[in-house]
Design a protein that fits this description.
With about 300 residues, the protein is of the alpha+beta class. Helix content is about 45%, strand content about 15%. It has 11 helices and 9 strands. Helix 2 (about 75-90) runs antiparallel to helix 3 (about 95-110) and helix 5 crosses helix 7. The N and C termini lie far apart (about 165 Å).
């Protein structure tokens, strides 16, 4: 009897282990959340949801066309709208930076292994300014190395330095502002090793001086970033991931120095002329009001000869 019970317990343990293994395998490598119509928070998938292959082109993420993706039509439409802003703000100065930023959000939203690096939580109330939003709280696990390369491809653009002075701050800033734009609060966790069962998001980030034929990852009208917005285009060597902006950052240094010099010269001339006339006026005053000498006083007391 004891042997039978022991065998039964062993079999039960094996069955439980198999069920747990299946659950773990199903919970990762699938889709963590699903998009809904605009103005509503995305819906957390309560059960493992496989990615879908669409026959139509995926306009915001052309390099994913024909591949399994976790982003549905609602999400694709919303990304297309948001990517227009990315092109206007970042794409004019540095088109490759814009491509790298688009790919970040394509990977976050559409990656077929989304649940490997994204954990969808609950819908919470988030206040932005004076307005409250219903937002799905999401944890994004992202590679530090990928984050630094993304920031390096963009950090010469003035708008980027306004967002943040660090690579991690740059990405988290965008996650914070997904509340009013996509009803999603994104908490970004940066690490290069698997953590708490989640793998960091890693994707190919292009250097800002990457040579193109006008197209990159399916995005059109993409060219290498000019020297003004890409140090690698100036000398072709690597630079520090972050360099604090200088005092004259964003200005024409030569023009500023010339203006400062002219102001100094004009100010100096004004002061010299003012001092000259002040001394001259004081000199005249002294001549007009000088007290008579002893000789003049003696002469004034002498009787006239008449």
């Amino acid at each position: 009897t004891w042997g039978f019970q022991q065998q039964k317990m062993t079999n039960t343990g094996i069955i439980i282990a198999i069920i747990l293994l299946i659950c773990v395998n199903e919970s990762h490598g699938l889709c963590a959340f699903t998009g809904v119509p605009a103005g509503q928070p995305p819906k957390r998938n309560s059960r493992p949801t496989p990615p879908v292959i669409y026959s139509e082109p995926i306009d915001p993420c052309p390099y994913l066309t024909g591949k399994p993706v976790c982003c549905n039509k609602f999400q694709q439409s919303k990304m297309s709208q948001d990517f227009t802003d990315i092109d206007l703000i970042f794409g004019i100065d540095c088109p490759i930076c814009a491509v790298n930023m688009k790919r970040l959000w394509c990977e976050f939203t559409c990656n077929p292994n989304q649940s490997d690096h994204v954990r969808a939580g609950n819908v919470i109330k988030v206040k932005v300014g004076q307005k409250y939003y219903d937002a799905l709280e999401v944890d994004l696990h992202m590679s530090l190395n990928t984050t630094c390369h993304l920031y390096q491809s963009c950090n010469k653009i003035p708008e980027i330095s306004m967002m943040s002075s660090s690579a991690m701050g740059f990405v988290q800033f965008q996650g914070d502002h997904a509340v009013d734009r996509g009803n999603t609060l994104i908490n970004v966790h940066f690490h290069d090793e698997e953590k708490e069962g989640y793998k960091p998001l890693i994707y190919d980030v292009h250097s800002c001086n990457t040579k193109t034929n006008g197209t990159l990852d399916g995005y059109k009208n993409v060219t290498s970033c000019p020297c003004n917005y890409c140090d690698l285009s100036c000398n072709g060597t690597n630079i520090d991931l972050y360099q604090p902006p200088g005092y004259f950052n964003g200005f024409n240094v030569t023009l500023v120095l010339v203006v400062y010099f002219l102001v100094f010269v004009v100010t100096t001339l004004i002061i010299m002329v003012k001092n000259y006339f002040t001394k001259r006026k004081q000199s005249k005053t002294c001549l007009l009001y000088t007290s008579p000498s002893p000789r003049d006083a003696t002469l004034s007391r002498m009787p006239s000869s008449a």
